Amino acid sequence: MMTILATLLSGLLWLGGTGLHPIPALTWLAPLPLILASTRVRPRTALCATALAWSIGQGGVVGYYLGTLRLPVPAVAGVVLLGLGLATGTVLLARVLLLRGRTALAVLAVPSLWVLGEYAASRLLPHGAWWSLAYTQADVRPVIQLTALTGVWGVTYLLLAVPIALAALRASPRPALTCLLVLLLGAGGWSAWSLGRSPDPAARLTVGLVALRQPEDGLPVDEPQGRDLLARYAARVEGLVARGARIVVLPEKVFAVSDTTMPVLVAALRQTEAQVVVGAVRQRAGGASNVALVLEPGGTVTTYEKQHLIPGLEDWLTPGDGEVLVDGRFGVAICKDLDHPDLVRRYRAQGASVLLVPALDFTSDGWLHGRMAVVRGVENGLVVVRAAAFGRLTVTDPGGRMVGEATAGDAELLLAAPTSGWGTVYSRTGDWFPLLSVALLVLAVGGARGGRWPGSATTAERSAGQPAERSSV
Q1: b/e map of 437-467 (b: 16 or more CB within 10 Å)?
Q2: CATH no., domain 204-421
Q3: Membrane topology type, per the record (predicted)?
Q4: Which of 264, 271, 397, 434 could covalently link to 119 via disulfide, CB atoms 3.0 to 4.6 Å apart?
């Protein structure tokens, strides 16, 4: 009965603490019931309980994978199985080490398994760092400051280390409490220092964002519906510029243009006092590309081509292969590009302090995908100005503060945004934390395979129905 209750409780906590609209506090608690129960049952029971709990937790996103993203069933099964493997592996490895009395190793090394799983997925799959527990904390600024040091991997590490330490408090209070304090004081000290930083108040610029209702793949500007949408956008952009905007960002794929119709779009949206960034599908004889057009006041048009396309939904488009930096400080990216930390790091290395991002999103994932962009900004010390057609309009500073936000659908924002950023440890060093996690995982596995420490875990193993092994010094 205890195991059943632990399974249901962890499953419900994962259901509420992950997915498209997570409750941050629940994510920290989700593994705790399973880890506590695992030390009182046999390994096979702990494995089955964790697998069932994780499957319950995935109930909120499977429909999104299949319906909204239109991922093939094998791909969805692979994503679910990846999480299932990391969850069961984490619980079982923690169980072994806790039963052997190796509390510090369980707390400090076992979370590395999940970190390496997320990192491997980010490198091997086309979705970048999209699949990470860290984004569940995107609205908790003290927590996401850690990404400026470690990337998202450090947040994932803490999300597993804390519940393991809490589970160990009952049997090994002193080492568990010591580990917990070390982790929380270390992360808390970094967070306190990071939260004390703020952009240069003198380096501010008025920006405007606007998103009107549109189809997903753009309207041709030479057709009646396209001309109507272009006229409405032109009026909104002109109004924002008249009220002081010096940069205006529109969503992704607003219009479909060719070399012949491009001048129509440019003539309608170009402003003499502001830069306008608009997303479009650019059609050419050799195919089509998803682009962000930067319309300069002097008449120059700079084109950025989206580098990271959505598998299945954007297979008909040709990806780009280079970054675009405007005026030496404004980097341009499109929607899913910000799921890839390495692209944003490259922009920071080139001197960018602001990212201008046309985006699309799919309504239900508007909060989650917009917050992923917030985390990219914190990782690299960048301002992010992002306009999503079916998500959120957001402007955030390098510390993750929400300067302005509106829900898309005939919405606009006009505000003074910072334009100065700062370098971070992560922007300079990259993914060093997963490398550290390799060493930690080797220690954890070695501790699990080694002999028992003298006199440890006898009571716990007996309570699980397992005979105690004889210990010797």
Answers
A1: beebbebbbebbeeebeeebbbebbeebeee
A2: 3.60.110.10
A3: Multi-pass membrane protein
A4: 434
Sheet holding 392-396: strands in order across? 324-326, 330-332, 354-359, 383-388, 392-396, 402-407
Q: Hey, which residues does 297 pair with through a beta bridge?
A: none
Task: Please answer whether residues 412 and 406 qualify as being in contact, where contact means their C-beta atoms are separated by less than 8 angstroms.
Answer: yes
Stated as kind and residue range, the H or E segment containing 154 is: helix 152-168
Beta bridge partners of 208: 248, 414
Per-residue pLDDT tens over the stretch 418-472: 999 999 999 999 999 999 999 999 999 999 987 554 334 444 444 444 444 333 3
Measured distance CA(236)–CA(230) in Å, rounded: 10
Residues 377 and 426 sit within 8 Å (Cβ to Cβ): no
Q: Which two tokens stand for residue 276?
A: 């306008």
The structural domains of the chain, with segments of one domain joined by +, span 2-196+432-463, 204-421
Strands 383-388 and 392-396, by their bridges, are antiparallel
pTM for this predicted structure: 0.92
CB atoms closer than 10 angstroms to residue 3? 17
CA distances (Å), 248 to each of 25, 237, 451, 456, in order? 36, 7, 64, 64
